[in-house]
Every structure is written in structure tokens, then in C-alpha cells.
Design goal:
The complex is a heterodimer. Chain A has five helices and no strands. In chain A, helix 4 packs antiparallel against helix 5. Helix content of chain A is about 75%, strand content about 0%. In chain B, strand 7, helix 8 and strand 8 form a beta-alpha-beta unit. In chain B, helix 4 crosses helix 6 and helix 5 runs antiparallel to helix 6. In chain B, strands 4-3-6-1-2-5 form a six-stranded antiparallel sheet. Helix content of chain B is about 40%, strand content about 20%. By secondary structure, chain B is an alpha/beta fold. The two termini of chain B are about 35 Å apart. The chains are: A mainly alpha, B alpha/beta. Chains A and B meet through helix 3, helix 4 and helix 5 of A and helix 2, helix 3, helix 5 and helix 7 of B.
């Protein structure tokens, strides 16, 4: 068997993990400037090893129980009873039922845990995305503001450099034109800023709605209380 | 009862790990199907709790005083789950069957007698404590969500009206179960001192993947009927008339118990000086700052300092909450009450201790009585 590169792709299609694969496992190297393996593939790999380990332990427990059952039967047979008649007695039936229910419960637990992990990931991504949107909006508004400041300063400097009132109709008209221009400019800026802010708000609302919708579908988790019985 | 033999036998069966509680609950549910309804869908956490409790009982079975306290708490705690005296026999029988099953040939009549005696002791302490508790208060309260205010994208404030008046100390909390997540209980602190109309305020923060917090912060929660367990917790005002000033340090929804204490203090004839630090990652996480500042404007003895840790543009104090609190002085003459994320609370405790504040003046919640 060739060695396996645990880079995520392997996890998609393969069957059970073999000891040989474990012995020769390799991981993708991390980016330059960072030591060691990439964290995510190692985590996934540990998840696979864990699941396999649980499966092996459960199989072992089942086999062990079957051995116990057969041993009891043999002992009972030696005691004189007809071994055929008690190969699968009432007590065995109960243990068998317990095993079936245990398997069903463990499967249900797995589903709940998977669903919870999924919802956790979705919420976390939503949170990050929201932070990102807000940060972008903040930066954009800073750019708009500083641009407006620069232009206003320019306008003021121009006005200072020409402090005397306009002396001719021609100059008067030019000043009027510039004033109108600045007014229009500020209107345009305000509209621009408003449209952008509203767009961002809509984006956040949309995101919140999706978030809320995903909570409604969210599954149950685990209890947090001590409990040894009902 | 042979304690050494008991421990040795437990060590042997405990090797089977999760198989042990899995077998126990399956055995119990097959013999008594009606008991299944007392438990949540997923039993994974439940099995962990069972094993933890068994480990604690077996390791402390010969130090009766500690164990008794633990079991009394466990007995009282189980009332809200719907446990009644009759269930204890069923649990005992399944426990014995489980131990016998995993002990195999090592299961002897003597061992069976040891375990029976040990379980009878456990069950009697638990049922007696539960019985004594019945005289004092109901197993749980029904409470209707009157309003649900969304204060930040991940924080909601709930106002709940319990069916009958609930006595508690400001700073305490109750376990809450919502019909949307049956049999899952989570602890939340009341954010107000007991009021004549009985209304309770809760601050709920959405935890990533948190089943109960998701349900409690959803818009559909208004009008639903929750179940509330009995009040518990030790983060309460120790000496309301000691004359010492108060330092309250709240991280995020850790504000709730401290706001209840603040509510209590404001009712005193001569309130001490109170310095409240309220911290969050970003400014919009300071979900209750408006009402706190309104209160501070009316109360000369109260100073509120908002702190933001992850946004340097914030106009007020920025930095980690423990660091900002330490920056403001050594707090001689103050009693400190801290609540919030565990790391934040621990860090604040060590900074205050380093500044010379005595342990007896630093108050935090002790979650030993139950898991948070």
C-alpha cells in the first residue's frame, strides 16, 4: 500500500482506516514562515481516527458480550439442561434488545452532534461575515468623509486666495457658479453616502433574516445538568 | 459494605467507557418506557453526567459529609426534571443489571450486596433532600415570556412573568427550559432584584451552535411558556450594610447578575459608591448601556464605565476589561463582584489579587452546585 496524503481529498471517498495508512500518514506542509502541519487537515484526520476508534471499541464490546452469552450458555449446558433449548434464552433477548436500542441511541446522538456542529459553523460564519460588512462600511464612509473634507478645504483655500468681493459682473457670475457647483457637489455626496449606507443596512438585514431562518431549523443539543437517572 | 471491593469492581466495569451508560439507559428505557420522556433526544451529555456522578460517588463513598452535600444537591436538582421517588427503584435495578452485565463472571452475591447497599444510601439521601425541598418550593415554575427585545445582533433581553412569585437573592440564576428544546436546561441569571409584580429580566447571548440560546433569542419566543428551575448561585451581595464600596465588573451578558445587585443596592437607604465596568468586544455589544447611563445620571453614587476591547475607534475606554479595571486603581475599600466569560473573570481575579485585594473581597459565581 502506498502512503496516504491526508489533505482532505482522501477523506471524501475512502473506506475504513488501516493501520498501515496510519503508520505512513503524511500531511500537507504549512505555508512559508509557519512551522508544522496545516491545522485543519490534522484536525480532520484526528476526527477520522476518533470515529474509527469508537467503532472498533463498540465492535469489541459487542463481540465481548456475545462471548459472555455463549459462555453462560455452555455453563448452563454443562449443568445438565438441554443446550439446544436455551441457546437464545429470555435474558439473551433482553440483552439483544438493549443492544439494538443502544445502537439506535448512539446513531441519534451522532445526528444531533453533526447538526449542532453544522449550525455552529453557520452561525460563526455569519458572525464573521457581519463583522466584515461593518468594517468595509466603516472604511468606505471614512474615505467619503475625508474626500469631502479635502474638497471643502480646497474650496476654503480658494476663497481665502481671493478675499476681495467680486468686482465685476463677470467675476460675480463665476463665484455664483462655483457656489452652485459646491452645493450640487455636496448634494450628490450626501445622496451617494445615503444610498451606500442603505445598501449596507439592507445587506445586514438580509443576513440577519437568513441567520434567523437557520436558527429555526437548528437541532437540539445536549443537556447541561447532572443526572444519574430520571 | 466493602469499599475497596466496590472500587475495584467499578474500575473494572469503567474500562468499558461509554458502553456502560449506554447499556444502563437502554436497559432502563426497555423496562420502563415512560421514563424515556424525562430525557432529551441526544443522550450523549447525559451519559457523561452519569459516569461523572458515579466516579464521584465511588471515590467519595467513605467521606460521607462531602458526598452527602453533593447528593442532596443532586436530589433537589432532579425535581425539576420530573424525577419522583418511584423512579429511584427503577434506576437502582438497571444500575445493578448493568454492573452485573459488565462484571461477567466476577459478579458475586457479595458484590451485588455491596452495590445494593451503596445505591440504597445514595437513593435515600437524594430522595430525602428532594422531599425536604418539596416543603419549601415547587419543583419548577411556569413563566410566560412577556416581551423579547433584540438589543444587539446576538443579545436579546427577555422579560418573563412566573405563574407564582419566586423568592431569590439578586445575583442568583435559574435553569431555563423552552418548549422549543424539551429537556434541555441552561442557567441564566435574573437581571433585576425581586419586584412586586414578580417580573424577571434575563439577558440571553446567542452562542454559536448553542441549542437553547438559539431558541431563546429567536423572534418566536415572545408569548411562549418557559419552565424555570429553583434559584441557585452564590454571587450575591454579602454584607449589604458593611459600608464598603462596590466594584462591579461585567463582561457581556455577565451584566445580568450584577445589574440585579445594582438594583438591590439602589433600594438601600444609603447606597455605597458603586463603580460599574461594562465590557464588550465592540460598541454595539454594550447592549444595555443606555439604561445604565440613565441610572447613573440620577444616582450620584453610581459611575458607569463602558469598555470596548476590539475597536480602537471607540470614544470611551478601550482594551481588555481586566486591564482597564486594573488601570483605574488598586480599589482599596472596595468589594468586587465579577461576572462574564470564564477567562475574563479569572484574569480580573488575578489582577485584583495582584493589586492587593483580599480573596474575601472578591466575589464570583461558584458553578460547583451545577454546571453553568
Amino acid at each position: 500500500m502506498t502512503s496516504v496524503q491526508f489533505d482532505g481529498a482522501w477523506l471524501e471517498g475512502e473506506g475504513r482506516l488501516t493501520p498501515e495508512e496510519l503508520r505512513t500518514a503524511t500531511f500537507p506542509l504549512s505555508r512559508l514562515g509557519r512551522r508544522g502541519y496545516e491545522e485543519e487537515p490534522v484536525r480532520k484526520f484526528l476526527g477520522v481516527v476518533h470515529a474509527e476508534f469508537v467503532r472498533v471499541l463498540n465492535e469489541r464490546a459487542s463481540l465481548w458480550q456475545e462471548v459472555q452469552r455463549l459462555r453462560r450458555r455452555i455453563l448452563a449446558g454443562e449443568g445438565g439442561a438441554d443446550p439446544q433449548a436455551v441457546l437464545f434464552g429470555e435474558a439473551d433477548a433482553h440483552v439483544h434488545a438493549v443492544r439494538i436500542l443502544s445502537t439506535a441511541q448512539a446513531t441519534a446522538d451522532r445526528y444531533v452532534a453533526d447538526a449542532q456542529a453544522y449550525s455552529s459553523r453557520v452561525t460563526k460564519e455569519a458572525r464573521l461575515r457581519r463583522d466584515h460588512i461593518l468594517q468595509e462600511a466603516q472604511q468606505h464612509s471614512e474615505v467619503i468623509l475625508s474626500d469631502a473634507h479635502d474638497r471643502a478645504r480646497e474650496a476654503a483655500v480658494t476663497a481665502l486666495n481671493h478675499p476681495t468681493p467680486p468686482r465685476s459682473d463677470r467675476e460675480w457670475q463665476a463665484a455664483q457658479a462655483e457656489l452652485a457647483y459646491l452645493r450640487t457637489y455636496s448634494d450628490v455626496y450626501r445622496a451617494h453616502l445615503r444610498a451606500y449606507t442603505e445598501g449596507v443596512l439592507r445587506g445586514i438585514e438580509e443576513w440577519e433574516r437568513k441567520e434567523a431562518a437557520s436558527f429555526q431549523e437548528a437541532p437540539d443539543g445536549h443537556a447541561d445538568q447532572w443526572s444519574i437517572g430520571p | 459494605m466493602d469499599v475497596a471491593r466496590l472500587r475495584e469492581s467499578f474500575a473494572r466495569v469503567a474500562m468499558h467507557g461509554d458502553e456502560l451508560p449506554l447499556f444502563f439507559y437502554s436497559d432502563l428505557f426497555i423496562k420502563h418506557p415512560e421514563v424515556r420522556d424525562l430525557f432529551p433526544v441526544s443522550m450523549a451529555a447525559q451519559r457523561g453526567h452519569l459516569v461523572d456522578a458515579l466516579v464521584k460517588i465511588v471515590s467519595q463513598v467513605d467521606s460521607v459529609d462531602d458526598l452527602t452535600l453533593f447528593l442532596q444537591g443532586l436530589g433537589r436538582d432532579h425535581r425539576k426534571f420530573g424525577a419522583v421517588a418511584g423512579h429511584y427503584d427503577a434506576v437502582g435495578a438497571s444500575l445493578l443489571a448493568t454492573l452485573a452485565h459488565f462484571s461477567g463472571p466476577a459478579w458475586t452475591p457479595e458484590l451485588a450486596a455491596d452495590w445494593t447497599a451503596a445505591y440504597e444510601l445514595v437513593a435515600s439521601v437524594m430522595t430525602e433532600a428532594a422531599h425536604a425541598d418539596e416543603e419549601l418550593r415547587p419543583a419548577s415554575w411556569r413563566g410566560k415570556v412577556v416581551t423579547c427585545e433584540r438589543r444587539a445582533f446576538d443579545v436579546s433581553v427577555l422579560f418573563v412573568r412566573p405563574e407564582s412569585k419566586m423568592d431569590y437573592l439578586p445575583g442568583q440564576s435559574v435553569a431555563i427550559e423552552t418548549p422549543m428544546r424539551p429537556k434541555l436546561w441552561r442557567y441564566y441569571s435574573m437581571a433585576n432584584a425581586p419586584r412586586p409584580d414578580g417580573l424577571l429580566e434575563f439577558h440571553i447571548r446567542l452562542i454559536d451552535g448553542g441549542a437553547v440560546s438559539m431558541a431563546l433569542t429567536s423572534d418566536a419566543i415572545a408569548g411562549t411558556e418557559l419552565r424555570l428551575g429553583p434559584p441557585a448561585g452564590v454571587l450575591t451581595l454579602k454584607q449589604p450594610v458593611s459600608g464598603r464600596d462596590l466594584l462591579l465588573v461585567a463582561g457581556s451578558t455577565g451584566l445580568a447578575p450584577l445589574k440585579a445587585i445594582l438594583d438591590q443596592v439602589s433600594g438601600l437607604p444609603q447606597p455605597p459608591n458603586v463603580r460599574l465596568f461594562f465590557g464588550a468586544r465592540t460598541a454595539d455589544g454594550l447592549y444595555d448601556l443606555d439604561s445604565l447611563e440613565k441610572m447613573a445620571a440620577q444616582c450620584p453614587w453610581l459611575t458607569v464605565t463602558p469598555v470596548v476591547s476590539a475597536d480602537t475607534r471607540f470614544a470611551g475606554e478601550t482594551g481588555s476589561l481586566p486591564e482597564v479595571v486594573a488601570r483605574h486603581g488598586d480599589w482599596p475599600g472596595y468589594d468586587a463582584y465579577l461576572a462574564g466569560p470564564t477567562e475574563m473573570v479569572q484574569e480580573t481575579v488575578s489582577r485584583l489579587a495582584a493589586a492587593g485585594m483580599a480573596q474575601e473581597h472578591i466575589h464570583i459565581e461558584d458553578f460547583g452546585w451545577s454546571e453553568p
